[in-house]
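for the record, two folds in this file. i put them one after another cuz i was lazy. first one right below, seq on top, structure tokens after. the second one comes after a little note so u can tell where it starts
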Amino acid sequence: MLQRLRGIVQEVNAAKDLQASLDIIVARVREVMGTQVCSIFLHDNDIDCHVLMASEGLNKQSVGHVSLEVGEGLVGLVAKHAEPINLDDAAKHPSFHYLKETGEEAFHAFLGVPIIHHRHVLGVLVIQHSEIRSFDKGEEAFLVTLCAQLSPIIAQAEATGAIQGLSPSGHKTSDTIFSGVAGSSGVTIGKAVVVFPPADLNLIPNRPARDIDQQIDFFNNCLNSVREDMRALHSKLMGHVKEEERQLFDVYLHMLDDKALGGEVVEQIKLGNWAQGALANVAKEHVRSFEKMNDPYLRERAVDIKDLCSRVLFYLQKKEPVTAEYADNTVLVSEELTPAMLVEVPKGKLVGLISVKGSGNSHVAILARTMGIPTVMGVLDLPFNQLDGLELIVDGYNGQVISNPSEQLRKRYLDTIAEQDQLNKGLEGLKDLPCETADNHRIHLWVNTGLMSDVLHSLDQGAEG
């Protein structure tokens, strides 16, 4: 069972989007469990319902069109209590709600398991069978474990869709909130600029290519540099290892051909992605494909793909160093922000910070508080490599990042920003005045802190020591 569990997770990891992930899950679970029906209901916050998103065994026409209110039916009961429900005859349960469109009347046995991510129920995975029987403990344990493994993948896929303005069921959505922890108080609205460390395929964002033909030529030149490296390594090993071992580098050369990886990257560039983003997408897709293979030898080839593409990425970055373009209202975004990344932003252009990793005690958060920049840390579900160029709201008071803001929410935050500015201007005129009561009694204003950054900030704001 563990092998089957691993196989399903790897397949889902390789899926291109949320719907593809769900279709793989229901097909593979139905096959592995030997049951007649497997379905997934996801909670759509936009319409506040559990929507039938994928199914093998129920009427296909009902997928995407059938939904249950929150708390309605057995699915709603599973989601409400965040616990599995295992029934030998579902129709006899008082919470059973018949969905005519699905054709589920032929099925009696029911096992529903919640899909939980960070203590939040994303949806419910259901298996059904026409036989009147309870599913055994082993089957229930398998589904519980599977849902735990799949929940972060589903959450990430949902988040990517939300960034594009779509709810799980395909409805247009707005005011998408990603929660983290407050790093530095304040509110700002700005344009996301994604920054990343060099030569890491997993962190390269998608960006539009300014000149597609130039990017293709540039990529091919870097590809030729890697080909030369492979030939040099092949020659260097002559007399040191057997010829069949040296032939590995010939395989690498074939993988870089126009009909293999090289050609796929060029096709992505033609669609408008810059060379680094196109390479990262192709590399990750092939790595996922190899990692889900059952054959251990073939599975290990994923390492070769990573190595080869990382070499190409090295040349792309070496010959054309990435220099971020900072907007006047830059919100700096990264998987893990560092103080050095902050320093790179021209003075006066940085208005907000977002880090997928980190906490309120990280160096970046401390520095942000000193600089008075609204910051949110630890936004774990944020698909940061999809954010470049998007407008974001950074709420440093509540530790939230908001994408696709509605006009109503945007205006509310603009009003908050205006109030902040007005308050700061008012305090600016008071900070240098002596601390005296109405009856002229002098009071000393001291700061109590263990951090030098807070000391400097407090002195700047009028503290005496």
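(here's the note) second protein begins now
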Amino acid sequence: MYRVKTFKYYSTYKICMIEEVFELTQNGRAKKWHAFYGGKIEILPKVPIRTLDDFSIWYTPGVAEVCNEIAEDEEKAYDYTNKWNLIAIITDGSRTLGLGNIGPKAAMPVMEGKALLFKFLGAVDAFPIALAEQDADRFIEIVKAISPTFGGVNLEDISSPKCFYILERLQKELDIPVWHDDQQGTATATLAALINALKIVGKDISEVKISIIGVGAANFATIRLLKAAGADPKKMFVVDSKGILHPDRADLKEKKGYKWQVAIETNGERRTGGMEEAIRGTDVLIAASKPGPDVIKKEWIAEMNDDAIVFPLANPTPEIWPWEAKDAGARIVGTGRSDFPNQVNNSLVFPGVFRGALTVRARKITDEMCLAAANALAEFAERNGLSEDYIIPRMTEKEVFPEVATAVGVKAVELGLARLELREEEIYEIAELMISATQRKIKKLYELGFIKEPPS
């Protein structure tokens, strides 16, 4: 009975999704709206400008006093400027959505959209920067050169494997948080969903066997975070385009790259073969490979252990349709899409993570802080009542973002990475107030007509 109901539920959403995409494509609504507004974000002052005399305070000559203070103590930039709440969203456009290397200008609409989400969900001022630089080392030097402006850096839509190198170096060489959302954001959301899925099926993360399809940015970070959460890497079976990773693969031995490290740490059974062999007899399947459907077959899901958990996360189409995974025996299914239950969505993660990190003026975002965010998401959903169709908060549950921010800020203080050692209740109060105030401002601007109604 349950499976039939679920199939109908998914099928209804499938039809709605197809109709919606058709409507958007036919009407060109996205193009119309972007052209109508001339982009999605702007900069507004947050200080009063009562008369032009106020500029003698905000600008010259009064501003010189503030500049001298910062010159004597650079940490005061956090007190006198918006550095404390300003991040850069930086891309080279080399892996934008599922569109490939479309270049920095074509990536700008995505960066603006990200900035919009940062502001609305996290009250974070985010500025998009699209760099015409594909070389990793030069990219790093540019980011370091502009970093004094910002309290944090969000790397976005950068191809692998250079994204791993860029993130690692910038995390080491800058004293502000550096985050690659395609890696850490997706991994954190995936872990949060898995924590609750395992609670429902009554399995322990240290005991389950996990098949991982795809070893790009998202799954590389997911493997690392799963290990930090207690999963046994020897019980992970990781697949790339050439098959299961294992130490006897000549191509991996020769390159000795990031996949080689995964190969020697995982696959304790020394499995060989492809996706089917990796999936067989596992408890959990996490796929972040290429859009489906039919990338993963129903008969492979049927070979998983009882009470299987399946996360096909490719967008816009998951590697296998949720109803097919359910029909094949999966008990819990999560995708990257909002039109199916259990959306494993990094938008639940990055606004709160940065809100928390910026509130305490953190120097880093670590895996421990990601684990804190994942646990906060999982606990929020658990309090609301877990079910097979609800293992992770929904985007509409806006109360979750201050809770994620608080968990991250508290962990930064515990780790000694915070410039401001605030108490838990202080972090929550600041985050909740800033996020709610931002959303009220945007609503009021719309009601007053300063944000116009979009064209039909």
